[in-house]
Amino acid sequence: MIDLSRYIRHGANHNGSDEWRTPPKVFKILTNEFNFTHDLAATKTNTLCDNYFVDSLSVSWKGIQAAFCNPPFSMAEEFLQKAHEPDLTVFVIPARPQTKYFIKNVMLNDYTHEIRWCHRGMRFVPPAGVQRKISRAPLPVVVVVYRNTQRTHEIRQTVICSDTLLQLGVIAKGNTRGRPSLYDMEQIDAISRLWEKGTTNIRELAALTSIPRSTVHRIVQKLNV
Ligand SMILES: C[S@@+](CC[C@H](N)C(=O)[O-])C[C@H]1O[C@@H](n2cnc3c(N)ncnc32)[C@H](O)[C@@H]1O
Questions:
Q1: What confidence score (pLDDT) does residue 1 get?
Q2: What is the pLDDT of residues 55-68, one digit of tens each?
Q3: Do 146 and 36 share a domain, yes or no?
Q4: Do 189 and 163 fall within a single domain?
Q5: How far is the CA of 54 from the centre of ligand 1 (A)?
Q6: Is the CB of 43 under 6 A from ligand 1?
Q7: Same domain, 194 and 161
Q8: Distance from Cα 104 to the centre of ligand 1, integer Å
Q9: Count of structural domains within the chain
Q10: Residue 123 predicted with pLDDT over 90
Q11: CA-based nearest residue to 163, from 124, 113, 114, 115
Q12: Is 105 near ligand 1, meaning CB less than 6 Å away?
């Protein structure tokens, strides 16, 4: 049986640590590709680039050409909200498609250009001073490439090896134009939650979610099974 507690128990919020380090080989491969100048989540002792910030969240990242970020996993959302600021940023983060912040900041973000889904858990290096065998992280990990220009095509999505970052397969080439949703995911999600709780009147749903009645009608037809 899958131990789900292992999946959610990571980062400082879950009795874990935010100090796990990027595997050196993973960083080397990525910096060979992107030429990072800044490590956006680091201390003086664990920075992987010449430049880092003592409190990265309190400074602007605009003007940075190429940044790397393996954020504290308990603060991934805060770091991701600034991902579009540098010209290019590459994040190594837990894949959490069940959360609103991952959907908004990764999957439905116009500045997300690539998602590389890792096969097998990444072998993060234990925090400095912690004697522990390096084993694979129990949580799924993605490498996400952001640019400060809005995407005009779909997100390129691939599957890669978590050790060598070798591309194992292509999910979406990223060369066809995407069709962004007109409405915010939270507006659409609100309809299904209200519906589940018994609000079925279209006029009422439209008023509560600020979505036009004709659209609510179409959504409700799908809910009405
Ligand atoms: C997952 S570790 C990554 C360490 C290293 N840079 C690497 O990639 O191997 C995240 C680091 O971000 C640091 N950190 C936490 N809050 C931060 C902040 N506001 N600004 C910059 N770094 C922060 C943590 O102390 C921790 O060392």
A1: 42
A2: 999 999 999 999 99
A3: yes
A4: no
A5: 9
A6: yes
A7: no
A8: 22
A9: 2
A10: yes
A11: 124
A12: no
Question: Are 60 and 168 within one domain?
Answer: yes
- Number of the ligand 1 atom closest to the C-alpha atom of 47: 6
Cα(78) to ligand 1 centroid in Å equals: 12
Which among 31, 43, 52 is the best mutation to test ligand 1's pocket, defined by most ligand atoms within 8 Å of the CB?
Answer: 43
Check if 20 has its Cβ closer than 6 Å to any atom of ligand 1. yes
Half-sphere exposure of 119 (CA within 13 A, CB side): 12
- Residue 151 structural domain: 4-172
Domain co-membership, 143 together with 209? no
Q: Which residue in this structure is represented by tokens 């095509």?
A: 153
Query: Are residues 142 and 51 both part of a single domain?
Result: yes
DSSP helix/strand/coil, 167: strand
What is the whole-number distance in angstroms between the Cα of residue 113 and the centre of ligand 1?
A: 23
Q: 78-104, pLDDT tens digit by residue?
A: 999 999 999 999 999 999 999 999 999
CB 111 within 8 A of CB 150: yes
* Domain of residue 156, CATH code: 3.40.50
- Residue 163 Cβ contacting ligand 1 at under 6 Å: no
What is 106-145 written as a DSSP string? IIT-TTEEEEEEEES---PBPPTT--------SS-EEEEE
pLDDT band at 4 (very low <50, low <70, confident <90, very high): very low
For 190-223, the pLDDT digits (tens) are: 999 999 999 999 999 999 999 999 999 998 888 8
Q: Return the structure tokens found at 115.
A: 């998602």
> Using a 6 Å cutoff on CB, does residue 158 contact ligand 1?
no
User: Residue 92 Cα, ligand 1 centroid: separation in angstroms?
Assistant: 12
Closest CA to 24 of 167, 159, 163, 168: 163
